[in-house]
């Protein structure tokens, strides 16, 4: 369950980093930020579909 949270945080940070790099016209950084967003976003969605969303109760 913690894996979903970690993947989601990395996805959000990759989106912010890619947008910031694009805004600063850093094309290589923007490429890696968008690529990381796509890969970790896919991992996040697939982990939620496969394992379910963490409920917070044990």
Tell me about this structure.
Keywords: Membrane, Transmembrane, Transmembrane helix. With 58 residues, this protein is mostly helical. It has one domain. It is built from 2 helices and no strands. α1 (2-23) packs antiparallel against α2. The chain is elongated, with a radius of gyration of 13 Å. 14% of the residues are buried.
Features:
single chain; 58 residues; mainly alpha; 2 helices; 81% helix; DUF2759; DUF2759 domain-containing protein
Layout of SSEs?
Blueprint lengths: L1 H22 L3 H25 L7
In brief:
It contains 2 helices and no strands. With 58 residues, the protein is mostly helical. The chain has one domain (2-51).
The overall average pLDDT, rounded, is: 89
**Total helical elements:** 2
Q: Could you describe the largest sheet, including whether it forms a barrel?
A: none
Structural class: mainly alpha
InterPro entries: DUF2759
Protein name: DUF2759 domain-containing protein
Transmembrane segments: 28-49
Pfam families: DUF2759 (PF10958)
């Amino acid at each position: 369950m913690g894996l979903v949270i970690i993947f989601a945080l990395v996805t959000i940070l990759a989106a912010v980093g890619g947008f910031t790099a694009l805004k600063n016209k850093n094309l290589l950084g923007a490429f890696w930020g968008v690529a990381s967003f796509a890969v970790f976003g896919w991992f996040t969605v697939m982990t939620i579909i496969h394992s379910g969303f963490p409920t917070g109760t044990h």
